[in-house]
Amino acid sequence: MADNDLNLLLDQIVQLASPIRVLLFGSRARGEGSVTSDYDLLVIVKDGEGRRSTAQMLYREIKGVKTPFDIIVATESDIADYADNPFMVFKSALKEGSIIWDGQ
């Protein structure tokens, strides 16, 4: 991860949300990203943590990142229950994504 914006983004996510794991997926993970591409991040949190409230807090609190980003927050159970569902983003994120933070 040589990208300063990605490092800044990840540092803030880890400090603010204490995730279990963070994956980068989408065009940047596939090596197809350009300077205008956003960061697509799957943030996996413990069961019982509010997905929506965590995502809202992250969008509100993350500062100084110039590159656009999309954050999807999921619990461990969400991943276990829907990892193979072709209609959910989890399947492609897990398949093509790369783990950029593992807090376990």
Topology:
Layout lengths: L3 H14 L3 E5 L1 H4 L8 E7 L5 H11 L7 E7 H7 L6 H8 L1 E5 L2
Helix pairs in contact: 1-3
Structure, briefly:
This protein has 104 residues and is α+β, with helices and mostly antiparallel strands. The protein has helices spanning 4-17, 27-30, 51-61, 76-82, 89-96, and strands at residues 21-25, 39-45, 69-75, 98-102. It has one domain (4-102): Beta Polymerase, domain 2.
Index terms:
globular, 104 residues, alpha+beta, four-stranded mixed sheet, Beta Polymerase, domain 2, 23% strand, 5 helices
**Helical/strand content category:** alpha+beta
Q: Helix proportion of residues, in percent?
A: 40-55%
Number of strands: 4
| CATH architecture descriptor text | 2-Layer Sandwich
CATH class group: Alpha Beta
Cα separation of the termini: 20 Å
Mean pLDDT: 94
CATH topology title? Beta Polymerase, domain 2
Shape: globular
Order of helices and strands: HEHEHEHHE
Side by side, the strands of the main sheet go 3-2-1-4
Descriptive overview:
The chain has 104 residues and is of the alpha+beta class. The protein has one domain (4-102): 2-Layer Sandwich (Beta Polymerase, domain 2), CATH 3.30.460. The chain contains 5 helices and 4 strands, in the order H-E-H-E-H-E-H-H-E. Helix 1 packs across helix 3 (51-61).
